[in-house]
Amino acid sequence: MRLVNSGYLLIALSATFFALGSYAILFSTLLPSPTNVVLNALVTDTHYKYFAVLIIPTAAYFVIANWIGWQYYQNS
Q: Which regions span the lipid bilayer (predicted)?
């Protein structure tokens, strides 16, 4: 038997990614500077912090559009 169900692990990792992305983009201007090196680098960056968060919906859109296009191609 597995120790952790993979569904719960996926939900926990998604929530962690959402919390870190929300902090880096929205709440970093309101809260004091973090002492963690990785979070501090993410907060002080002005370009790639948006790329890291927006790559997820962009990739999901690409996968869905590609799958729909493939379905149209197969059924034509």
A: 7-30, 50-70
